[in-house]
Amino acid sequence: MTAGSESVTELLPMVFAAPGEALARAERLLGSDPSPLDASVAHQVVGIWQRDFGDLGVALEHLRRARDFAARADSAEREADVLATLGVALVHAGRTRQGLTAFERGVARGSGHTRARVLYRRAYVWWVLGRHKEALEDVRRAIPVLRQADDVIWTARALTLRATVHLALGAVDRADADFTAAERLWETTGQEHDKADAVESRGLAAFRAGDIPAALRLLAEAEERYAELGTPTFMLCIRRCEVLMAAGLAPEALAEADTAIAALDRLGGQSTRKAELLLAAARAARSAGDARTAIARAAVAVRLFSGQRRGWWETHARLVLIEARVAGGAVSGRLVQDAAAVADQLASFGAPAAPEASLLAGRIALALGWTADAERHLAVAARSRHGGPPLARMTGWAAQALRARSAGSRRGVLEACRRGLDVLDDHRMTLGASELRARATAQGAELAALAQQASLAHGGPRRLLEWSERWRATVLSTPPTRPPADPALLTSLTAFREIASRAEDARRQGRPVPALEREQRRLEGEIRSRTHHIHGDAPGGGDRFDPARLLDRLGDGRLVELAVLEGRVHVLLCGQGRVRRFAGGPLAEAVAEAEHVQAGLRRLAHPGAEARLAVVEAAGRRLEELLLGAAADQLGSGPVVIVPPGALHRVPWALLPSLRERVLSVSPSAGSWLRARETEPPPGGRQVLVRGPGLATGGAEVPEMAGQYATARILDHDEAQVPAVLRELDGAGLAHIAAHGTFRADSPLFSSLRMADGPLIVHDFERLARSPYRIILSSCDTARLASVGADELLGLVTALLPLGTAGVVASSAPVNDAAVVPLMLALHKGLGAGLSLAEALRDARAALPGDAVHQATGWAFAAFGAA
User: Fold this and answer.
1) Are 277 and 264 contacting, i.e. CB atoms less than 8 angstroms apart?
2) Kind and range of the H or E element at 573?
3) Among 483, 710, 439, 459, which Cα is nearest to 563's?
4) What residues contact 586, with CB distance under 8 A and at least 6 apart?
5) Which H or E run contains 382?
6) What is the β-pairing status of strands 786-788 and 792-794?
7) Residues paired with 562 in a beta bridge
8) Nearest to 734 by CA among 858, 847, 837, 839
């Protein structure tokens, strides 16, 4: 390229439209003995590319040469432009003073249009440094000049920057107006990199406005655009980490930030970006409960920000560092002072995080018994409860609840907790994906715990029940938003099924499958990402729990809800028109005992382990003492519903002596049981029998049951493929699925039932318009669930209950395939006689042979719901 054939200055806009092509052309130009002016442009282009996508040290070398060639060309405007680019690179390298000096020279050397471009870039640097007032002043001076020169590209960049500064200051409406104006300008250009940046910025604006699904969707779209250009996405990674944390996906955010830090280190990239990534990683680690990692990442971030003279950022990193130290158990007067100082600094910056720091100072002061200091800090934090994004308002209500507790006002505590959890409910219902709804509940854990403690101290058992229900299994209160008919999502599900099936076949044959497993993980990530983009319905937390309605529906039965406060189990026995409270044991002991029982059931699933039966039964007696206490003698003679906390979802309740002979069902919450109890069966009540491949017995119960259900639709062998199975399950009255079950603790919505064409996963069930009224899963581990969020459970059973299923029979442990057959046949015999699932399962257990294998098989299965 020469100045005579095509203007060399076209290389500069090209570096943001087609970065790779611009780099290649600039390098070719430098190899052709260019003039000083052309060499200056070419070195600047290489410097910009290396600054943003490569090695910052190499970038500085090229930009200094670009400056020197501009001076040799005796072009003040060219020199001013290069000095601005060099100033940005120096600041990103942590050489803040040198960078600001370069800008001073650039502003002095340039004039008119060029000076406006220099001012825009200095405004960007002020934003990087967290000096928002200066940033707004420089961009205010630049925009009119850029508009007058009809410079569409730089005007759009300046509007985008101003919007980003507005967001940092919490001015979402102003930011949205600038983003919209910038996007209209970008559409008239060919600046593909800048267009991707505009989409990323819209994602940030959506997040600040509280729209997490839109934010995730827009950030994913921006990432795809960057990938097409072949450019790294470190800033996008930082923003996505923030959104993932707000969505309750802190471990994913930490993994993404750490991966990006390693990639940046390999490139020798921007020191400023590394500091920001470390801050993102520290926040994610703190949210994930990993205080040690949070302290380590935050401490390095503080040191880097300090060296870079970035006070706004350094103060935010100090906030995370103090939070992590407190989470790790540190409490001291010095920490109160540090948190208060951080709160004051953040307030002086106009940072939305200031109330969070005041709340932290108040919490530490309360722990030390400094009530006057605590009141002062909490009062400041509580002001945020009336405005701003949902999480900021929840911070305010948490502060208000702590103030009320310190003042001895139970009513004030409960009112603040109610208002805060109402905010969370509205926020949660904007999320369409059940996983995000479940994880979002963790943000209300402190409010719910405060309300439960206040209820336990002064409110009585019924009030404690209400607050136990207020935050438990809320994800089941309304169905997840049904995924749209998204061709890309359906394609990913089909491809996942094919790859997972091939990987399973290869593993059975003893062949290594790393490539297939990598592709399976990639497809899982794609499916999760697409479901996370689904919007929820209108705000509202679903039906409110009514204890009177529960007591009326129970009749002569009992419902036992287990609440956990400060590590101990409290038994809430509902029935006979009242709620009574009994003391249970330590939760940790009960969890350990439940794990011992599960290990025993796994052993008993195989012949030859009969000696373990007495050990398992003894563990069942200990579990009863820990979990029911004196309530075991007050259960009456009617049916019993158990509502355990998430930590105890794997307890085989039929093993407990006082429950062994009873009509027994399990529910994630009392409210969920009520909804199941009041769910009407579909008209027609058709039956579906499904038999998957690879069962030791060949699914022997299915052919025998076919005679009982003469009109049943039977899918087995090659017919038992996921699309056909889903069509038949939709709206069925009764479904029986005999198939291998796999529980995924790492990703519970990928727990599956094995069909002829691959796994039937939870995401598939969520696409049903209405799941079967009753469903029986005669498979291992189908009742296993993952505890997430506050007290939410994700898995096959909980996916079905909000979708129209009123009753499920499933197993929480591995079972003996042969022993399952007589249990299932006896169960269906009871259903044919008009019994409920719980009644039929009780009678089926009683009809089994008395050997250890059959007894353990009966205990492993439970009836969920109320059908």
Assistant:
1) yes
2) strand 568-575
3) 459
4) 567, 568, 569, 626
5) helix 371-382
6) antiparallel
7) 571
8) 837
pLDDT at 849: 92
820, 605 contact by CB (below 8 A): no
| Average predicted confidence (pLDDT) for the chain | 88
pTM equals: 0.76
Question: What's the residue count for the chain?
Answer: 867
CA distance 377 to 316: 18
For residue 323, count CB atoms less than 10 angstroms from its CB and return exposed for 0-12, middle for 13-18, buried for 19 or more. buried
Q: How far apart are CA 415 and CA 56, in angstroms?
A: 54
Strand partners, 295: none
> Which residues, at least 6 apart from 819, have a Cβ–Cβ distance to it below 8 Å?
848, 853, 854, 856, 857
Residues pairing with 109 in the sheet: none
**What DSSP character marks residue 483?**
P
Taking the C-alpha atoms of residue 736 and residue 780, their distance in angstroms, rounded to an integer, is 14
Tokens 């979990």, located at residue: 627
Residue with tokens 């929820």: 536
H helix intervals, 328-353: 333-349
At CB < 8 A and 24+ separation, what contacts does 747-753 make?
747/524, 747/528, 748/785, 748/786, 748/788, 748/794, 748/795, 749/434, 749/435, 749/528, 749/531, 749/794, 749/799, 750/524, 751/784, 751/795, 751/796, 752/500, 753/692, 753/777, 753/779, 753/782, 753/796
Q: Which residues of 102-123 are buried (b: 16+ CB within 10 A; e: fewer)?
A: bbebbbebbeebbbbbbbbbbb
Cβ-contact 106, 87 below 8 angstroms: yes
Amino acid found at 103: F
Neighbours of 637 (CB within 10 A): 10
Crossing angle for the helix pair 56-72 and 76-92, nearest 10 degrees? 160
Give the pLDDT band (50/70/90) at residue 330: very high
Residue type, 748: P
Question: What are the angstrom distances between the C-alpha of 357 and each of 301, 306, 338, 419, 438?
Answer: 18, 19, 10, 21, 26
Strand order in the sheet with 752-755: 741-742, 752-755, 758-761
What pLDDT score does 4 carry?
40
Q: Which two tokens stand for residue 296?
A: 């380590």
- SS3 readout for 254-318: HHHHHHHHHHHHHHCCCHHHHHHHHHHHHHHHHHCCCHHHHHHHHHHHHHHHHHCCCHHHHHHHH
How far apart are the C-alpha atoms of 416 and 562, rounded to whole Å?
Answer: 24
Q: Find the DSSP H helices in 73-171.
A: 76-92, 96-109, 112-129, 132-148, 152-168
Crossing angle (nearest 10°) for helices 670-677 and 460-470 = 80
As given in the structure block, the two tokens for residue 605 are: 């699933």
Range in 199-208, 311-320, 472-481, 589-598 the model is least confident about? 472-481
Q: Do 513 and 506 contact (CB within 8 A), yes or no? A: yes
Q: Which residues contact 255 (CB under 8 A, 6 or more apart)?
A: none
Residue 31 one-letter amino acid: G
Find out whether 400 and 418 touch, Cβ atoms under 8 Å.
Answer: no
pLDDT category at 130 given cuts 50, 70, 90 is: confident
Question: Which residues are 564's β-sheet partners?
Answer: 569
pLDDT digits (tens, 9 = 90+) for 399-438: 999 999 999 999 999 999 999 988 888 877 777 666 666 6
Nearest CA to 349 out of 127, 159, 103 is that of: 127
Mean pLDDT of 344-350: 89
Using alpha carbons, list the distances in angstroms from residue 505 to 361, 474, 510, 637, 814. Answer: 57, 38, 9, 50, 21
User: What's the mean pLDDT in 376-381?
Assistant: 96
Residue 305 to residue 630: CA distance in whole angstroms: 58
Query: How high is the pLDDT of residue 542?
Result: 53
pLDDT class for 478, splitting at 50, 70, 90? low
